[in-house]
Amino acid sequence: MVATHSETLHNATSAATGKTVAFALDESPDSVSALQWTFDYILSAGDKLVVLSVAQDSVTSTTSRVLVGEAGKVGEILCAEVRSREGGFGRVEKVNPAMLILGSSSKSQMTGFLVGSVSQYAVRKASVPVIVARVTPTL
């Protein structure tokens, strides 16, 4: 289970028997697209999705629509708010997921170098496999 500030959005009648997937959500359009990609290509029935929201505010209505619309496809969805990337990775360690997925912010290499990239930090620090999903628009 996720620590105290978690909210269960969907809990199937039977316990989740599949894999646990952690998803770091920052409410950017890339992150929301990557969340949809995760439902389309990674998650299956019985899996547990742990959404770690690193946004300043609560989960947006766009993200809520994705989560609610896809909730029936998985066994359980849990949400937790994190205040920093370090705190988020502490939560990742606690839930022991099969993988961590996050969206690419599409920053230039220079901006990523100067500001620091959460995805770069995740790849270096996470103890589980990390997927940085860069969703490209369809033509």
UniProtKB/TrEMBL annotation:
Record domain UspA: where: 92-134
Alphabetical list of SUPFAM superfamilies matching this protein: Adenine nucleotide alpha hydrolases-like
Domain of life the protein comes from: Eukaryota
InterPro entries (alphabetical): Universal_stress_UspA, UspA
Name of the protein this chain belongs to: UspA domain-containing protein
Organism: Blyttiomyces helicus
